[in-house]
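Hi everyone, sorry if this is the wrong subforum. Our group has a chain we'd like a structural model of before ordering constructs, and none of us has done structure prediction before. Sequence below.
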Amino acid sequence: MRGVSRSSAALTVVNALPTGVGCAIGIARFVTVTAELEPGNPETVQCTPEDAGTPLVRASVLAALARVDPTRRLHAVLDLRSEIPVAKGLKSSSAVSTATILAVTRAAGRELTSLAVAQLAANVGRSVGVSATGALDDALAGLRPGFVVTDNRRDTLLAEGAPDPSWAAVVYLPPGQHPPAPSLRTQFETAAVEGLEAVHAALAGRYPEAMRCNTLLVERLMGYRYAELRERIEKAGAVGVGVSGLGPALAALVPRDRQEAVLSCLPSDSGERFTADLTREVGP
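Answer:
Right subforum, don't worry. Here is the predicted structure as tokens:
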């Protein structure tokens, strides 16, 4: 029994830590997982490469098996390949979890909806401590195209929206990684009132405005000093720019014909910078 799936990285429009409501959109960098199931102990997950067998991956396998057939004793053999940098704000944990769950359920002969897969991944993220809210928005954005707005307290989808067809993304990844989200939950919850402005903009489909409101909050709480760089990015043609997740990634929504102009105004002496399409179709 064999299943293949992939999930994408995603960019934050609204961080869910302050209010519980988050918004994200996928970009074309992917995690691909191939899963094979055979009789054996489900606790002994075998992964290639070996260091891919993290607690998150193992918990995702067990959650998937429990969902599709809790009475069977199956051993999972996984091949996991990721194009998403870890702990940079591009939702690598959500993409790994959703791709793993989807591959395992497909190997078992079941096809879950993208929302069901994302909800399972959200539960796994909370249980292993990689996410404070479960990050349903990040998980779902990695599985379907367009903007998604979710209530991560109730694991429900609130709204969806299609981006302008001309938009793509430009991403800057400075050195360093963000701390674990659960360690920052209390700090962000103190800014809930401020966070509602970004939520209301996202629910109304004003995604660039939501990004601007969100990044002012996140930069203040995380200590990032991106104001001058954001101004340059906007002058170069970006329609929206802000911190993705907890950073340090800074991401911009940009018309394709302005991607190179925006890319050229990013720092070139440190970190990484790249362009990416917004996901139109995730598959397989």
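For your construct planning: The chain has a mean pLDDT of 92. The first helix runs from residue 55 to 68.
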